[in-house]
Design goal:
Chain A: This is NADH-quinone oxidoreductase. Chain A: InterPro entries: 2Fe-2S_ferredoxin-like_sf, 2Fe-2S_ferredoxin-type, Mopterin_OxRdtase, Mopterin_OxRdtase_4Fe-4S_dom, NADH_UbQ_OxRdtase_75kDa_su_CS, NADH_UbQ_OxRdtase_ferredoxin, NADH_UbQ_OxRdtase_Gsu, NADH_UbQ_OxRdtase_Gsu_4Fe4S-bd. Chain A: It catalyses: a quinone + NADH + 5 H(+)(in) = a quinol + NAD(+) + 4 H(+)(out). Chain A: Belongs to the complex I 75 kDa subunit family. The complex is a heterodimer of chains A (about 675) and B (about 210). With about 675 residues, chain A is an alpha/beta fold. Chain A contains 19 helices and 29 strands. Chain A has 4 domains: about 90 residues, Ubiquitin-like (UB roll) (Roll), CATH 3.10.20; about 160 residues, Alpha-Beta Plaits; about 190 residues, Rossmann fold, CATH 3.40.50.740; about 120 residues, Dimethylsulfoxide Reductase, domain 2, CATH 3.40.228. In chain A, the strands form 8 sheets. In chain A, strands 14-13-25-24-23-15-16 form a 7-stranded mixed beta sheet. In chain A, strands 2-1-5-3-4 form a 5-stranded mixed beta sheet, with helices on both faces. Chain A is globular. The N and C termini of chain A lie far apart (about 55 Å). Chain B is α/β, with parallel strands linked by helices and about 210 residues long. The model of chain B has no long low-confidence stretch (mean pLDDT about 95). Classes of the chains: A alpha/beta (about 675), B alpha/beta (about 210). At the A-B interface, strand 7 of A face helix 5 of B.
C-alpha cells in the first residue's frame, strides 16, 4: 500500500495502482484519451503527463507509471500545464476543425479537454493529414481523419470482445485504424467502440446527424433484449427514442452493451400497434377501446375457468405479468405460462432457475461446463465475463452441444448423451476445481430429453460436490425469471396451456410461438404487429419497455427498475392499465387503481420484488429422476442473434445487421 | 507504404493456396524452433521475410506479401489476420505490392541529401525509374526511403540485400546499367575506401601508427 502525495495531498493507493489512479483518489482530474479503466494500458496519447519526483526531470505519462512509496506528484505545476498544452497542440495538428458537423460534438473528450487544457489557438499553418473513410459495417460510422490513434477500439476488440478485427496499419503519420480488409466488424459488441472513441472518428451510423446530446431527455432503463438486464440510458427527443447507451453497473454489464441492446430499440417506432383492433367478418378493423373490450367480453362469455388460457411474452415487466395473473385467477383459470419455449427446469426454490454464480461471479469460476448454451448469442455480456475467466484467469471451459466460436478456447465434449458419462478429463477437472460452474442453456432445457439432461447434471453436480451456487440457468428472455418468481407457470407447461379444451387465449406480448389455434378466441396484448398479433381476434395495444415504469428480474434474480422514457404512441396504454380496465368490463375488477397500488400488492406477496438487488434464494434443487436421452443433436436456441424479438425484428438496423453480418448480403452503399 | 502503388485483387488471388517450397519448409522449422511453442507468434517477422523471398523467387522479383500469404502465415502462427497485417504494414522492408527484380531504395535523409542524394535520384530518373513505380521491363522499382544508418558513407542506396555507398551520378548510373545487364556490381563504397574507414589515408590517431 504505497503512500504518496498528489499536489500536497497525501493518498494511500493499493499496490499495483498507477500514478493516474492515485491522482484520481486525491480528487485531481488528469486528462486522458488512450487510458481506459477496463482496457489494458497503452500510454500512447501522452495527455496524462504529470510531474513526478523522484524521477527524470521531465513530465511522465501517469497512466503507465506505477505509484510508488514517497512519490511527490504534481498535476498543477507550470511544467504540467505547458506539457498538456503541447500534447494538445500535437493532437490537434491533424484533427479537423469540423466540430459543427461532427456527431461527437457536445460529448467529445477532445473538444472538452482542448477547452480545459489547450492553448486556445493554433500555430500550425501546414496542410492537415487526411485519411480515407473506412467501412466498418452497419453500426459504426467512420471519419478516420478525426482519429487521434488512442487505440481504444483496437484494444476493446482484442481484449473484451475477443474478435481481433480492428487494427492499426502503417506507421507514424500514415497510421490508420481499420478493420481487416475493411470488412464489417462482426462482433455483437461492436457498438461499444463508438462509446470508447474519445473523438468523432467512430460514431453511430444509425444515430448520424439525429440530435445533439443536450437536446435529449435521458432516462434510466433496463434492457429487455436478453436476460442480462443491461443497465441502459434511453435518450429520447419528443416521442422518439433516438439511442440507447449503457450505464455503468459493475455487477451486471460493467459499461458495455450488446449491439442488440443499443439498436433494437430503434424498432420502437416501427410496426407499432397504436390503436385497438377487432376482427369483424374475418378482417381486423380499427376500433375504440370500448368496442375492443366489448369484443373481448363477447368472446369470453360462456367460457369459464380453464377454458381460458394466457401466455406471457419475453419482454414483459413483473407488474404486467402480475396483473395478468390476477386477472386469470379472478376468471377462475390457472392455465397460464411464461415459459413459451417449453423450458423444463429443475424443481426446488428460486435457486433452481437462476444464474446462481452471478454474472460478475462467473469471472472467478475456474472450470465451467456449458450445456446447450451459446453465451455469445444468448447473453453476450455473460460471454465477456467467461472470456475474462478464461483469458485472464486461466479457467477451463467444456462444452456439450453444438460447436460455437465463443472467442476463447473451449473443449468440445460432444452431445447431450455424453452427460451420462462425462469424459474423464472433464469430470476430473470439475472435481478438482475450487469454483466450478455448470451453465445450462435454453437449447438443452427446451428439448424433449431435458429431464434426462437435468438428471445427468444432478449426478455430475453431486459427484463434483457442486452446490446451488455453481448451478446456472442461462436464460434468454428478460421476463423469464420475474415470471417464475411470481409463479406465472402451469404444471403441464406451455404444451398443456395450448392443448385440448382451450377456448380462448390471452397472448400478452408472446411473439416467439405460434398462438393461432383452430377454434380458439385470441386476444393479443402487445406493442408490435408481429407473429403474436397475426390471427388475433382482438388486439389491445400496449406500451413497450421504454414507455412504462417496470420491474425486471435478470437471470441472476437481480431485481431492477426501469423508468418511462417516452409515452406509448397513439391509443396504446400501459399493460397494467389495460388489464385493470378489461377486468372491470369482464366483471371481476382488479383491486388496484394505480401503479403504486399494484406495486404495493406485489410487495405484499413477493417482498423481494419491492427492493432492487438480489434476494437470497433457497439452495435446494431437485434434478428429478431423469429419462432417456434423445439421439438428435442439441441445436442452437437462437438462430439469428439480431432478430430475437418483435422489437428487434422491427428495427431496420437489426435487419441490416442480420442480412450483412450473418447472411452475407452485400453491404449497401449509402446514397450520398 | 500507403503512397506506393497497391496491388490489384487479381495479383493477390494469384497466390491463393500459397505454401512453402520444400527447402523453405525446412527453414520454417528452424525459425519456429527458436521460440517456445506458446510464443511462436514471435516468428512472424522472419516468416514474413521468408515468404516475401519465396514470392520473389517464384516471380523472379524481390517479392511482396499478397493477402493470401499474410493469411497463410497468420494461420501457421495462430494469429488473427489483422495482427499479421499490422506487422506487414508497419515495417517498410515488407512490400505490400509487387516490385521489380531490383528494388532500388534511395536514402534521402539529411546526411545523404547534403552529400548529393539528389544526384543519385537524378541518375535513377534518367534511367527511367520513377518513385513508387516499377519500370516497364519489370527490372527496377524505385523507392525513396529514410535513413538506413550508413551516413558515414553518404549518399547511399540499398538495392535488394546490398548497400551501395559513396555514390555520385556516374557511379549510380553505372550500377544500374550493370544490374540491367545481369551483372553483379561491386557492393559497398564505390570510391577508394574500406568500409567506412577514412578516404585515402588515416586521418586521426596517427601517433599510434606503427
Amino acid at each position: 500500500m504505497p503512500k504518496l502525495t498528489v499536489d500536497g495531498i497525501e493518498v494511500e493507493v493499493p499496490a499495483g495502482a498507477t500514478v493516474l489512479q492515485a491522482c484520481e483518489l486525491a480528487g485531481k482530474e488528469v486528462p486522458r484519451f488512450c487510458y481506459h479503466e477496463r482496457l489494458s494500458i497503452a500510454g500512447n496519447c501522452r495527455m496524462c503527463l504529470v510531474e513526478v519526483k523522484p524521477g527524470p526531470p521531465k513530465p511522465q505519462a501517469s497512466c503507465a507509471l506505477p505509484a510508488a512509496e514517497g512519490q511527490e506528484v504534481r498535476t498543477d505545476s507550470p511544467l504540467v500545464k505547458k506539457a498538456r498544452e503541447g500534447v494538445m497542440e500535437f493532437l490537434l495538428i491533424n484533427h479537423p476543425l469540423d466540430c459543427p458537423i461532427c456527431d461527437q460534438g457536445g460529448e467529445c473528450d477532445l473538444q472538452d479537454q482542448s477547452v480545459a487544457y489547450g492553448r486556445g489557438r493554433t500555430r500550425y499553418t501546414e496542410n492537415k493529414r487526411a485519411v480515407t473513410e473506412k467501412y466498418m459495417g452497419p453500426i459504426i460510422k467512420t471519419a478516420m481523419t478525426r482519429c487521434i490513434h488512442c487505440t481504444r477500439c483496437v484494444r476493446f476488440a482484442e481484449e473484451v470482445a475477443g474478435t481481433d478485427e480492428i487494427g492499426a496499419l502503417y506507421r507514424g503519420e500514415n497510421m490508420q485504424i481499420t478493420s481487416y480488409l475493411e470488412a464489417a466488424v462482426k462482433s455483437e459488441l461492436s457498438g461499444n467502440v463508438i462509446d470508447l472513441c474519445p473523438v468523432g472518428a467512430l460514431t453511430s451510423k444509425p444515430y448520424a446527424f439525429e440530435a445533439r446530446p443536450w437536446e435529449l431527455t435521458k432516462t434510466s432503463g433496463i434492457c429487455v433484449m436478453d436476460a442480462v438486464g443491461t443497465n441502459i440510458r434511453i435518450d429520447a427527443r419528443g416521442p422518439a427514442v433516438l439511442r440507447v447507451l449503457p450505464r455503468v453497473n459493475d455487477d451486471v454489464n460493467e459499461e458495455w452493451a450488446s449491439d442488440k441492446t443499443r439498436y433494437a430499440p430503434l424498432g420502437l417506432s416501427k410496426r407499432r400497434l397504436d390503436k385497438p383492433y377487432v376482427r369483424r367478418a374475418g378482417k381486423l378493423e380499427a376500433a375504440s377501446w370500448a368496442e375492443a373490450f366489448a369484443a373481448v367480453k363477447t368472446g369470453l362469455s360462456d367460457l369459464s375457468g380453464n377454458q381460458i388460457g394466457a401466455v406471457a411474452g419475453e419482454l414483459l415487466d413483473v407488474e404486467s405479468m402480475v396483473a395478468l395473473k390476477d386477472l386469470m385467477k379472478s376468471l377462475g383459470s390457472d392455465r397460464f405460462e411464461c415459459r413459451t419455449d417449453g423450458m423444463a427446469l429443475p424443481g426446488g426454490g428460486a435457486g433452481a432457475y437462476r444464474f446462481n454464480t452471478g454474472i460478475a461471479g462467473i469471472e472467478d469460476a475456474d472450470v465451467v461446463l456449458l450445456v446447450g448454451a451459446n453465451p455469445r448469442w444468448d447473453a453476450p455480456l455473460v460471454n465477456t465475463r467467461l472470456r475474462k475467466a478464461v483469458v485472464k484467469k486461466g479457467a477451463k471451459v467444456f462444452n456439450v452441444g453444438p460447436e460455437v466460436d465463443l472467442t476463447y478456447p473451449v473443449t468440445q465434449l460432444g452431445d447431450g448423451a455424453v452427460l451420462g458419462k462425462l469424459p474423464k478429463a472433464a469430470a476430473d477437472a470439475l472435481k478438482s476445481a475450487t469454483r466450478p460452474a455448470i451453465i445450462v442453456g435454453a437449447a438443452a432445457l427446451t428439448r424433449g430429453d431435458a429431464p434426462a439432461i437435468l438428471a445427468a447434471l444432478g449426478k455430475i453436480a453431486r459427484a463434483a460436490k457442486i452446490g446451488a451456487e455453481g448451478f446456472n440457468v442461462l436464460h434468454t428472455a428478460a421476463s423469464r425469471v420475474g415470471g417464475l418468481d411470481i409463479g406465472f407457470t402451469h404444471d403441464g407447461g406451455i404444451a398443456e396451456v395450448l392443448g385440448s379444451g382451450l377456448k380462448a387465449l390471452i397472448v400478452h406480448g408472446a411473439d416467439e410461438i405460434d398462438t393461432n389455434l383452430e377454434g380458439v378466441f385470441k386476444v393479443y396484448i402487445g406493442h408490435h404487429g408481429d407473429l403474436g398479433a397475426r390471427g388475433a381476434d382482438v388486439i389491445l395495444p400496449s406500451a413497450s419497455f421504454a414507455e412504462k415504469d417496470g420491474t425486471y428480474v435478470n437471470m441472476e434474480g437481480r431485481v431492477q427498475r426501469s423508468y418511462r422514457a417516452v409515452f406509448a404512441p397513439g391509443d396504446a396504454r400501459e399493460d397494467w392499465a389495460i388489464l385493470r380496465a378489461l377486468s372491470e368490463v369482464l366483471g371481476s375488477k382488479l383491486p388496484y387503481d394505480s401503479f403504486a397500488a399494484l406495486r404495493a400488492r406485489i410487495a405484499a406477496e413477493w417482498p423481494h420484488l419491492a427492493e432492487e438487488g438480489i434476494a437470497p434464494a433457497s439452495g435446494e434443487i431437485d434434478f428429478g429422476t431423469g429419462g432417456d436421452f434423445d439421439a438428435a443433436p442439441i441445436g442452437r436456441f437462437i438462430h439469428d442473434f439480431y432478430l430475437t424479438n418483435a422489437v428487434a425484428r422491427a428495427s431496420e438496423v437489426m435487419q441490416d445487421c442480420s442480412a450483412t453480418l450473418l447472411h452475407g448480403a452485400p453491404a449497401l452503399e449509402a446514397a450520398e | 507504404m500507403s503512397h506506393a502503388a497497391s496491388a490489384t485483387p487479381e495479383q493477390h488471388h494469384a497466390f491463393d493456396g500459397f505454401d512453402w517450397t520444400p527447402e523453405n519448409a525446412k527453414r520454417v522449422k528452424v525459425i519456429l524452433a527458436r521460440y517456445p511453442e506458446v510464443r511462436k507468434q514471435s516468428a512472424v517477422m522472419p516468416l514474413l521475410d521468408l515468404a516475401q523471398r519465396q514470392v520473389g523467387a517464384q516471380t523472379k522479383t524481390q517479392g511482396w506479401l499478397p493477402i493470401p500469404v499474410i493469411e497463410f502465415i497468420a494461420g501457421l502462427l495462430g494469429m488473427p489476420y489483422i495482427r499479421v497485417l499490422e506487422v506487414a504494414t508497419f515495417y517498410t522492408m515488407y512490400n505490400l505490392a509487387p516490385v521489380g527484380r531490383h528494388h532500388v531504395q534511395v536514402c534521402g535523409t539529411t546526411p545523404c541529401m547534403l552529400r548529393g542524394s539528389d544526384d543519385v535520384m537524378k541518375a535513377c530518373k534518367d534511367k527511367g525509374l520513377a518513385k513508387g513505380h516499377t519500370t516497364a521491363d519489370g527490372l527496377f522499382t524505385l523507392t525513396e526511403v529514410e535513413c538506413m544508418g550508413t551516413c558515414a558513407n553518404a549518399p547511399m542506396v540499398q538495392i535488394n540485400d546490398d548497400n551501395y555507398e559513396d555514390l555520385d551520378y556516374a557511379s549510380m548510373t553505372r550500377i544500374l546499367e550493370e544490374l540491367a545487364a545481369g551483372k553483379a556490381p561491386k557492393t559497398g563504397p564505390q570510391i577508394d575506401r574500406q568500409n567506412s574507414a577514412p578516404v585515402g589515408e588515416q586521418t586521426s590517431l596517427k601517433e599510434y601508427m606503427a
